[in-house]
Amino acid sequence: MSPRWEPNPDVRRGRSVTYSLHAHLVFMPKDRRGVFTDEILARCADIMIEVCDSFGAELVEFNGDSDHVHLLVRYPPKVALSVLVNSLKGVSARLLRKEYPAHIGRYLWGGRFWSPSYLAASCGGAPLTIIKEYIENQKRPG
């Protein structure tokens, strides 16, 4: 009896595309101020989940410390990562400032919540060396 084939849960299918896109994102508050408490981190995670859902993306993992947050996001190819990042940062900044004005006001002032810079790293799948080797071996002999 042959083993049963099980689909890979990380691979998604659309009408004309099969994909597995993941990004590791790191956001820091302006001037890397330690604004996050456990309660604010939990609320930030909830906001990030809602934003991802609105893009057809999924927040796979979220965590952080007082001065930064990490996100692992699975997103569809129709979504420009920079647009998703801008929405994640914009919506969370607006809602966190609104919901925690006294606490956040002690750490951040002015119009910005997040630093304008961020880390975005692609992740998942095989290591780059394996992919490079696979592509190199695709040349047909002759």
TrEMBL record:
* Superkingdom: Bacteria
What Pfam families has UniProt attached to this entry? Y1_Tnp (PF01797)
**Residues annotated as domain Transposase IS200-like:** 18-138
The record's listing under InterPro entries reads:
Transposase_17
SMART domains tied to this protein = Y1_Tnp
- Please state what the protein is called: IS200/IS605 family transposase
The source organism is: Nonomuraea guangzhouensis
